[in-house]
Design a protein that fits this description.
By secondary structure, the chain is α+β, with helices and mostly antiparallel strands. Helix content is 32%, strand content 15%. It has 6 helices and 7 strands, in the order αβββαααββαββα. Strands 1-3-2-4-5-6-7 form a 7-stranded mixed β-sheet, with helices on both faces.
């Protein structure tokens, strides 16, 4: 008997425009701005493996299969952490315990579509421009993080500029409408 492979719609709700569905399990944003709202806890790596099946196979991770409750999420988390830096994805995790939001993006600058999707996710999660996020960078407010991602594209376009790593987010920039105070 062959096992039924999972599809992306088995593990995430896909939102191409408008406000994404709320999920306590997190989100993934593809380069084209498509939002994947996870329907299972710790499935960021599974979604990445489903979006990049050739890479998963190359790295010797089998295609995720039914039953969902028996998927080795820790193996796929390893795949996620080993490879997401080189992929055009932004990962958003939500802590149900602390109500904190963690954003993790790879080494590829965010696209305009990703920035728009990220802002829609923050609104769905009820985050204001002044709310603090956690992540790979120093803790920043939502507005600072959006501006940081915008500046990252500028810095990437100027690889010889010694100031390219400086972060100087202007106050009130980021989420449409500026400051929420």
């Amino acid at each position: 008997m062959s096992e039924k492979l999972l599809s992306i719609t088995d593990v995430a709700l896909i939102c191409e425009s408008g406000m994404p569905a709320y999920t306590p399990y997190g989100y993934l944003v593809g380069a084209e701005g498509k939002i994947y709202a996870l329907t299972y806890r710790w499935f960021h790596g599974v979604v990445i493996a489903l979006l990049y099946p050739e890479l998963a196979a190359e790295k010797q991770y089998p295609a995720p299969a039914e039953p969902r409750d028996e998927v080795d999420v820790f193996a796929y988390q390893r795949f996620e952490h080993e490879n997401s830096h080189d992929l055009p994805v932004i990962r958003i995790a939500v802590s149900q315990l602390t109500d904190s939001v963690m954003v993790s993006k790879g080494g590829i600058p965010a696209t305009d579509e990703q920035l728009d999707a990220l802002q829609r996710i923050f609104r769905t999660l009820g985050r204001k421009a002044s709310d603090t996020l956690t992540g790979e960078e120093d803790d920043m407010t939502v507005a600072q993080y959006i501006e940081y991602l915008r500046q990252e594209r500028v810095r990437a376009a100027m690889p010889d500029d010694p100031d390219r790593y400086k972060l100087t987010p202007p106050a009130g920039f980021g989420i449409e409408g500026g400051s929420d105070e």
